[in-house]
Amino acid sequence: MQQFGRKKISRYIEADHRSVCFKPCGIRGKDLEKTELDCDEMEAIRLSDYEGLYQQECADRMGISRTTFSRVIQQARKKISDALLHGKAIVMIKP
Known about the structure:
The protein is of the alpha+beta class. It has a domain at about 40-95: Arc Repressor Mutant, subunit A (Orthogonal Bundle). It has 3 helices and 3 strands; from the N terminus they run ββαααβ. Strands 1-3-2 form a 3-stranded mixed β-sheet. α2 packs across α3. The radius of gyration is 15 Å and the shape is elongated.
């Protein structure tokens, strides 16, 4: 089978978020639809939204280009907003 696209560049992830998950109150986890966040998406959220860094600083810390960081943070925010608006659980997936 032929693969298309470029190989994913290794990204520096400062914190391990694999044991983190969130779910709406009052609904059992097994009954919820899940939204999966990659570790690099969670790291992008941490650096940009929690640490308050500019995108270029975040990209430098993760070892990726600013345009790649911009794409990663946009995907992460879309997944999180989808989960919050539609009552889905958010789980981190392992790299």
